[in-house]
């Protein structure tokens, strides 16, 4: 398994450090509902205990003698006993259904909150941090990883029910017959010890499983594009072998989880058999327990048998949530950026100096950005054009930034807030919407087909039924035209087009850019292109290289500076 998919912490550290943080994160914001769930579970367990005791008079003739009471507990006639049993059992069933409904609501809300927090955090994450992640890691964090955490929360609720039921049933059993019930307590203590013995192994299995699931997600994403690449290179066999090896590791991890559950169930069932045998030997062999009390104790303890296996499974799910919790915490640790766009009209921006150190050193000076004007940025591949675009779009903070806006000094924070109402179309961007209409409606809150068709006409994409066309059926050039139509709908203060017209032919590129410039008279347009013909539309040209320059439309250099490094 690729190490970059590891959550990055040892299983022992996870067991000792993250158990404490996990329940708090799962329960945060819903304490009142959880308290209501616990109280309802307590009422359900009490009614279930009463329903179990109501079975005794139907089996054992005569009253049921309870210790510390001093007299028998009789239900009267047979019809009365049946009526009491039916009433208690019906109340138990209704209360258990209400508990299930409340639990389902809690689990649903928990999953929604966890997923929303991660998505909101990723939306405000620093660009440099996002660039260190694979798209599979992000997709996995938002999908399967949240499901694992949600299952952990559901397991936590099940453990609440199991704990309340066990405490109440054991308390009543001790009241009825202390001797046999003490054996049941010993059995439960031994079961907890057995469960604890396999905790480290479970943590290791779960840790590897999360990594293998993320790795398989990475291999499975964007399959149509990968299909073309694999087939053209003739690597179908190698790709299949690598995929099967990854799937085999994932299958082995899932198998190990099931075997751990099964082995734990076997141990618990054997302990339960031994415990029941000891109870019968103590009660019937010594003759110190009357049969009515023995029946009641067996019914109460019998209610706990199903919880032995479900509790084991719930603990396993809760342990599985630990590596998922680590990954969730990693993706939700960034603060949410809620800064607003600066009010007012588009400003005249004069950038005196902007410098970047990573990933490529860039030092550019005297860059003037004007609404309604276009700036062309060109240079060799890997020279830092995209990094400069990230800075100009306000997405990444540079090492040095000195500028004025409408003649007033402005730092990068003020500049970033001003251009926040922007539009960035990067090279190779893939639209995730289903249809062209969906892609355009995503930009504006008041979608109209007439407006959509108008902007599509501006970018040269007109044909019958275009709005209903599936996005994944568009060619590369058509996809870029839809993205440019989104920019027209946005009417931004700053539009960054980072090789956003590279899939168009030279003539179409000039036509589309000219039309966009005509439509966006209040927008600063910055275009990255390798085609020199775009220069005829630009008021300013930036060349990035060993010597970075800014020239006006007539070719006059404002100032030439040597790039650092």
Order the strands across the largest sheet as they lie in space.
Answer: 8-9-10-5-11-12-13
Uncertain regions spanning at least 5 consecutive residues: 1-17, 66-72, 559-565
- Largest sheet features: 7 strands, mixed
CA radius of gyration: 34 Å
Average pLDDT, to the nearest integer?
A: 77
- N- and C-termini, Cα separation: 38 Å
Q: How much helix is in the residues?
A: 55-70%
Structural class: alpha/beta
Shape: elongated
Number of strands: 13
How much beta, percentage-wise? 5-15%
Number of helices: 19
Main attributes?
disordered C terminus, 13 strands, 565 residues, four-stranded antiparallel sheet, 19 helices, alpha/beta, seven-stranded mixed sheet
Summarize, please:
By secondary structure, this protein is of the alpha/beta class. Helices cover 60% and strands 12% of the residues.
Please provide a written account of the structure.
The strands form 3 sheets. The protein has a 7-stranded mixed sheet, sandwiched between helices. The chain is of the alpha/beta class. Helix 2 (31-53) packs across helix 7 and helix 7 (144-176) runs antiparallel to helix 8. It is built from 19 helices and 13 strands. The model is unreliable at 1-17, 66-72 and 559-565 (pLDDT under 50). It is elongated. It has helices spanning 11-27, 31-53, 56-59, 78-123, 127-130, 135-142, 144-176, 178-197, 199-220, 223-233, 236-286, 291-302, 305-331, 385-392, 412-418, 436-441, 449-458, 476-490, 506-519, and strands spanning 64-65, 72-73, 349-356, 362-369, 374-379, 400-405, 408-410, 422-425, 494-498, 524-528, 540-544, 547-552, 557-562. The chain is 60% helix and 12% strand.
